[in-house]
Design brief:
196 residues, alpha/beta, 3-stranded parallel sheet, 7 helices
């Protein structure tokens, strides 16, 4: 990519996250609490072949490391900092790729995903709500991976690695499983009361 493309991508994807975190972090430090959820990407961990997205991938890897650094530095102020690391998701930004390269989307992206499809933004809501909630309180510096993950990435996970909780669309560590079940039950009860 060109230097201009590199700089523009870093300015939006990495500098933007840094500046937003810095702005809200000041208030959160004053109030001694807060939760920041950054949007990373699986592209911060893999290379999205056949496209050449070095700037994008490096910027998202930077978001993941910034998340870990801020989680460590701001933990003393009771501020939790986590990130989502979604797989391929249909957004305004990916619509052009979906339209211009349907062969890659259908034969590479979708076939590499666990459910043979591209994800939706709505599928990130459960993980976001969990990380923002009090139940997500022990999570710090994690990148919660969206359900639409690459098969080869999942195949590498052993029993010591994250346990997938499908209704919440995130990868959760084993010791979070009971807390997640309680949280999900509370959410379901609240939705039933609201609907009734």
């Amino acid at each position: 990519c060109s230097l201009d493309t590199w700089r523009q991508t870093m300015a939006v994807n990495l500098d933007g996250v840094f500046l937003a975190s810095q702005a809200v972090g000041r208030q959160m430090i004053r109030q001694m609490s807060g939760s920041i959820i950054n949007i990373g990407s699986m592209s911060g961990r893999i290379v999205n072949w056949p496209f050449r997205h070095a700037a994008y991938n490096v910027s998202k890897a930077g978001v993941h490391m910034l998340t870990k650094c801020l989680a460590t530095e701001w933990a003393e102020f009771n501020i939790r900092v986590n990130a989502l690391a979604p797989g391929y998701v249909r957004t305004e930004l990916t619509e052009e790729v979906l339209r211009e390269h349907p062969d890659v989307v259908n034969n590479v992206w979708a076939k590499g995903a666990v459910q043979n499809r591209i994800g939706s933004v709505e599928e990130l809501v459960g993980a976001t709500v969990y990380l923002a909630s009090d139940e997500g309180g022990s999570g710090q510096g994690h990148q919660a991976a969206a359900r639409i993950r690459l098969r080869h990435d999942l195949a590498r996970h052993s029993a010591r690695r994250p346990v997938r909780i499908a209704d919440h669309q995130a990868t959760l560590w084993p010791h979070h499983r009971n807390r997640h079940e309680q949280w999900r039950s509370q959410m379901d009860d609240g939705q039933r009361r609201h609907a009734g």
